[in-house]
Structure formats: structure tokens, C-alpha cells
Write a structure and sequence with these properties.
CATH architecture of chain A: Orthogonal Bundle
Number of strands of chain A: 2
CATH class of chain A: Mainly Alpha
Structural class of chain A: mainly alpha
Shape of chain B: flat
Number of helices of chain B: 6
Number of helices of chain A: 5
Shape of chain A: globular
Largest sheet of chain B: none
Largest sheet of chain A: 2 strands, antiparallel
Strand order of the largest sheet of chain A: 1-2
Oligomer: heterodimer
């Protein structure tokens, strides 16, 4: 599932710390860290909206997709 | 005014558990105070199990209700299928299984031993009744529900 989270890049571009953003959008630092590393199963629209508001960007800046045909087949896990 | 505030502070769980305590007391009175309930008088002969033996499974069921009462509290852990709710469901399910097992196997077997004054020690007596069987199935369902709820909660927690 080649959906990539580019949060680290956006954070660096905006010059804000992960801790500040996490507290502003109401996530724990652990949850935010998991999100940055793409280790979550999904992102709620509510969280995404808050992220976009705080980082002044669109969802496309945070989430990227690389085409992979394997995505059309059921995953093992 | 102060009393009114105190009354408003009673949570549904406390209320339910108070009812359960009264229920437990009623079961005790019914067993040990002759004529307390309006039921038929049963002669205390060898065919009637001793009161303490017949009380085991009802009290296990009451204990199961005690844990189930923990589920109706909105502040138990603030969310559906939280750690505390799952534990309460599991314990209540386990107690229902234990209570029905006691009613079906333990009580009749111990009663048999007492009735023959421990002369005939072999054999298991069964008292399979519909209510005990239903409670056994309910206990299993509660445990399965706890497992499923726990899984769902885990999945939900993996969304940020």
C-alpha cells in the first residue's frame, strides 16, 4: 500500500515542531509519531482537516500515493 | 439543597448495584427466614438441598449482575468497549458460566453426597434445566462479545 505520509517534509517546510502540531490538533505525541511514520491504519477526516488548517496546506501535501497494482488485491494481514 | 446535590450524584451504576444488593438480601431472607416469601413451604427432608447449597448459583448470578452493572456507567472508562467494559463483560460472562455449571453439576452432585451421608462417593448428578442452559449460553455470548468488542476497539484505535 504505497500511500506515503509526507508530514516530516511539511513540518520542516513550515518550521514547526511535531509536538506543537500534535497538541494543536489534539493527538498525543505517540499517535502523531505513528502518523508521521505511516504506522496507522487510517486518518480521520477530522484529523486531516485540523492538520491542513494548522499546517496551511491541502491533504495532497501531506498524503501522497505511488501507483501499485497490488493495491487491487486483498492484503494478507 | 445539599441533600439534593447528593442524590443527583448517584450514578446509574450505583443505583443498579444498590438494587442488586437488595436482590441478594432478598435471596438470603427467602432461603433462611421461613415464611418470608409467599411460596409453598417445602419440607426439609433428604430430597431438598440444604439452603446454603441452593444459594451458591444464585449468588454467582448476582455477582455477574454486579459486574454487568458496571457497563451502564457513562464514566466507566469514557468509551464503549474500553478496557474496563471489556473486563466487566468477560468477568460477568465467566460468572454466568460458573453459576450455570454450579446449578447443573455441582449442586446436584454435592446434594447427592450429602443426602447419602457421603457413603456413595461415585457418580455425577446432573440437573439440566432450561434456565441454567440459557444462562450458560448467555455467559458464552458475553465472553464472545467482549472479545469482538476488544478487537473492534483495537481497530478503531489504529485510526488517528
Amino acid at each position: 500500500m504505497p500511500v506515503r505520509i509526507n508530514l516530516d517534509v511539511v513540518l520542516a517546510q513550515r518550521g514547526v515542531s511535531a509536538r506543537d502540531v500534535a497538541s494543536k490538533i489534539g493527538l498525543s505525541e505517540t499517535q502523531f509519531s505513528l502518523l508521521r511514520r505511516g504506522k496507522v491504519r487510517g486518518v480521520r477526516f477530522e484529523t486531516l482537516s485540523k492538520l491542513c488548517f494548522v499546517l496551511e496546506c491541502s491533504p495532497g501535501a501531506i498524503i501522497d500515493y505511488e501507483v501499485d497494482e497490488a493495491d487491487m488485491y486483498p492484503r494478507e494481514d | 439543597m445539599e441533600m439534593r446535590v447528593t442524590l443527583l450524584a448517584i450514578t446509574p451504576t450505583v443505583l443498579a448495584r444498590s438494587v442488586i444488593v437488595v436482590l441478594g438480601a432478598l435471596i438470603l431472607f427467602d432461603a433462611f427466614l421461613p415464611g418470608f416469601a409467599q411460596g409453598p413451604d417445602i419440607p426439609a427432608d433428604g430430597d431438598t438441598p440444604p439452603a446454603w447449597l441452593a444459594l451458591i448459583s444464585p449468588f454467582i448470578y448476582v455477582l455477574a449482575l454486579w459486574f454487568l452493572a458496571g457497563l451502564i456507567s457513562p464514566s466507566s472508562d469514557g468509551e464503549a468497549f474500553g478496557r474496563l467494559a471489556v473486563r466487566n463483560l468477560r468477568v460477568a460472562g465467566g460468572l454466568l458460566l460458573l453459576g450455570s455449571w454450579t446449578a447443573i453439576i455441582l449442586e446436584p452432585s454435592v446434594h447427592h453426597l450429602i443426602a447419602n451421608q457421603f457413603v456413595e462417593m461415585a457418580g455425577v448428578r446432573l440437573a439440566i434445566e432450561m434456565d441454567s442452559a440459557v444462562l450458560f449460553v448467555l455467559g458464552l455470548l458475553l465472553i464472545m462479545l467482549a472479545g469482538r468488542g476488544s478487537q473492534l476497539k483495537e481497530q478503531l484505535d489504529s485510526f488517528v
